[in-house]
UniProtKB/TrEMBL annotation, chain A:
This is Heme exporter protein B. The chain crosses the membrane at residues 12-37, 43-64, 96-117, 123-150, 157-178, 190-213. The keyword Cell membrane applies. Keywords: Cell inner membrane, Cell membrane, Cytochrome c-type biogenesis, Membrane, Transmembrane, Transmembrane helix, Transport. The keyword Transmembrane helix applies. Required for the export of heme to the periplasm for the biogenesis of c-type cytochromes. It comes from Pseudooceanicola antarcticus.
From TrEMBL, chain B:
NCBIfam families: ccmA (TIGR01189). GO terms for biological process: cytochrome complex assembly. One of its GO terms (molecular function) is transmembrane transporter activity. Signal peptide: none annotated. SMART domains: AAA. This is Heme ABC exporter ATP-binding protein CcmA. Residues 3-206 form the ABC transporter domain. Keywords: ATP-binding, Cytochrome c-type biogenesis, Membrane, Nucleotide-binding, Translocase, Transport.
From TrEMBL, chain C:
It is found in: Cell inner membrane; Membrane. It comes from the Bacteria. It holds the Pfam family Cytochrom_C_asm. GO terms for biological process: cytochrome complex assembly. Its main location: membrane. This is Heme exporter protein C.
């Protein structure tokens, strides 16, 4: 399974776009929001945690359809399914690879973009922590959506329609942590709930993803 | 361990394609599947590989012992020949890829990116992948597509070596592989007569 | 002892539902006519809310059915996954657009009710918001059914989506609650006091009786529509099977 992870990371590096594309999208999105609402510092500071979370979520969404589509096209997905690895493990590794190539760069970039949005001082640490805890759930949920739509032509839009409602609880608690952090309030409750959601999805969703993948490979 | 298939019925898209497929394969034996296009060769192989469930019948064989070679080779264009093979070997818990490279005459190409290979070379790499799975039963779907005569001979040699080591192979093909010892199963007469789809079938035909 | 599962045979299902359908339809029409006329014209106006309160006769039943339709789909999905009864999968498929429309009615009537009450068409109140999320789940579910060509594959995929979606719909409900405490009046209909005529916080007796008639009407309407649409799905499925047979024959 480590071999699978290593292969996916190698491919993301060599094919290009794996790391860069999501980040570029994140940057553009933040800039567009600033253009949209105006340059006033106080307003940007107030909406910064929410914008940075929504931006990370959308940037994450962008690369979801590649999780299985490429492997499906060249036949590796079928061959992997007949390999001795459990399908649950395969989808977990796929989600992990997606998180490392897409989620983690976003987590690292978010504080920098926070500077641009005039995020208040105490917010940086909590923004970073909330994204660090929350983005794995986004990758795991996205992997489920990708597994659902892997056999479909033009599945991209459908994938977004299915995955985005699933992102709601993660977004709410994640953005709440960042917001409360920025305003200097106690973050413990939403932080624990966010961690709970991430743990729950990590533990259970791979089974659902593997089940739908099995159906789609049939 | 023998591979026993008894009275198998396979369906694609809810429509039965083949029925009454039965054969037995002992270690060291190969079976060649013949039949016109659309007769269900690929579906049968996918069932044997465990990718889809047969509609009826029995497969008396541990699917964990089967390696499947599909039309698509599962190669990554951005990785070298060695990297591709090493990956598939690692997935199957093995590490030695040298014999596979040698058997399919890929040593000179070992550092070439898979995306730069010709169609025939890719195919050879895809077949070399079978050797690094370390599995006893090879299920091959049209393995000789885009291979030249010399490569077909290499392939036959590799299959023969695999069989000599106690392996088995089920190969769907149209051409003569130069494996006269292999049994041949003609799928033409096994075309499914039942004209129900799964939905009707679930109710004993009461629905239509 | 006859088993419930024999109705999972499409032929049996169509025969039985044909027989039941007219009765259910007429009962639903009767309940809705009586309940709505009673509610709209023969109940007093609320001392605070005036005549706007009467939209409750559409809002509450549709909201109730929006949730119950999803529950029904969840149940049907589980039955499909466990027992592989095709009728069950098709019933889930048939119920989805009805549930989506119910959700839409609940949202629209909520907005219309909210305008005079809260002075705005839309507030990010937890209940309204979670209905919006429920609506999105319906859309995704329906779109997935439409996108997958093979019927059994589609049934499997949507069933699993329905289960995962249910968990996340409930999670969203609590998340949204956490996110904004809300203006919405609590679920006041079903509490014990409703029929006892406690007027303070609860919907009082005069309003409650026609409301229950309306709810019964909506439930019957839902049942009638699901039966009808499931029949249609079964027949569409049968057509495809016949065409497939013709092509092969």
């Amino acid at each position: 399974m480590i071999a699978l992870l290593r292969r996916d990371l190698t491919l993301a590096l060599r094919a290009g776009g794996g790391f860069g594309l999501g980040l570029a999208f994140y940057l553009i999105l933040v800039a567009l929001v600033a253009f949209g609402v105006g340059p006033e510092g106080a307003l940007l500071a107030r909406i910064a945690p929410g914008i940075l979370w929504v931006g990370a979520l959308l940037a994450c969404l962008l690369s979801l359809d590649r999780i299985f589509a490429l492997d499906r096209e060249d036949g590796s997905l079928e061959l992997l399914a007949t390999a001795p690895l459990p399908l649950e493990g395969i989808v977990t590794m796929k989600a992990l690879a997606h998180w490392i190539t897409t989620g983690l760069p976003l987590v690292v970039a978010a504080p920098l973009l926070g500077l641009m949005l005039n995020l208040p001082g105490p917010g940086f640490a909590w923004l970073f922590v909330s994204l660090l805890i929350g983005t794995p759930a986004l990758s795991v949920l996205g992997t489920f959506g990708a597994a659902l739509t892997v056999g479909l032509k033009r599945g991209g839009l459908l994938l977004s329609l299915i995955v985005l409602p699933l992102y709601v609880p993660t977004l709410i608690f994640g953005a709440e942590v960042a917001r409360r952090g920025a305003e200097g309030l106690a973050v413990q409750t939403p932080l624990l709930l966010l961690a709970g959601i991430t743990c729950g999805t990590l533990a259970l969703l791979p089974f659902a993803s593997a089940a739908v993948l099995r159906v789609n490979l049939r | 361990m023998d591979m026993r298939v008894k009275d198998l019925c396979v369906a694609r898209g809810g429509v039965a394609l083949l029925e009454g497929v039965s054969f037995t394969l002992a270690p060291g034996q190969a079976l060649i599947l013949r039949g016109p296009n659309g007769s269900g060769k690929t579906t049968l192989l996918r069932c044997l590989a465990g990718l889809q469930d047969p509609r009826g019948g029995e497969i008396g064989f541990d699917r964990e012992l089967a390696a499947y070679g599909a039309h698509a080779d599962g190669l990554k264009a951005q990785m070298s020949v060695t990297e591709n093979l090493t990956f598939w070997a690692a997935v199957h818990g093995l590490s030695d890829i040298a014999p596979a490279l040698a058997a399919f005459d890929l040593e000179a190409l070992r550092d070439r990116q898979a995306g730069m290979l010709s169609a025939g070379q890719k195919r050879r790499l895809g077949l070399a992948r079978m050797m690094v799975t370390g599995r006893a039963l090879w299920l091959l779907d049209e393995p000789t597509v885009s291979l030249d005569a010399a490569s077909v001979a290499l392939f036959a040699e590799a299959v023969r070596a695999h069989l000599a080591g106690g392996g088995m192979a089920v190969i769907a093909t149209h051409i003569d592989l130069g494996l006269p010892e292999a049994a041949v199963l003609d799928l033409g007469p096994l075309k499914a007569r039942a004209e129900m789809d799964d939905f009707d079938d679930a109710f004993g035909g009461a629905f239509l | 002892m006859r088993s419930l599962w024999e109705y999972a045979n499409p032929k049996k299902f169509i025969e039985t539902s044909q027989r039941v359908l007219p009765a259910v339809t007429w009962a639903s029409v009767a309940c809705l006519v009586v309940g709505l006329i009673w509610g709209f014209f023969f109940t007093p106006e609320d001392y605070r809310q005036g005549s706007t309160v009467k939209i409750i006769y559409l809002h509450v039943p549709s909201a109730l059915m929006a949730i119950n339709a999803w529950f029904m789909m969840l149940l049907a999905s589980l039955i499909w996954l466990i027992r592989r009864h095709h009728v069950s999968a098709l019933a889930a498929r048939a119920a989805a657009p009805i549930g989506a429309v119910m959700t839409m009615i609940a949202l629209a009537t909520g907005a219309i009710w909210g305008q005079p009450m809260w002075g705005t068409w839309w507030v990010w109140d937890p209940r309204l918001t979670s209905f919006l999320i429920l609506f999105l789940f319906y859309l995704g579910y329906i779109a997935l059914w439409a996108a997958v060509e093979d019927d059994d594959t589609a049934a499997d995929l949507t069933s699993i989506l329905c289960i995962v979606g249910s968990v996340f719909a409930v999670l969203s409900r609590y998340a949204v609650n956490f996110w904004n405490q809300g203006l919405h009046q609590g679920a006041s209909v079903m509490r014990a006091g409703a029929l006892a005529g406690d007027t303070e916080e609860r919907v009082s007796n005069v309003f409650a009786l026609p409301l229950f008639v309306c709810i019964a009407g909506f439930v019957l309407l839902f049942v009638a529509l699901v039966l009808l649409r499931t029949q249609t799905e079964i027949r569409a499925r049968r057509m495809r099977a016949l065409v497939a047979r013709e092509r092969r024959g």
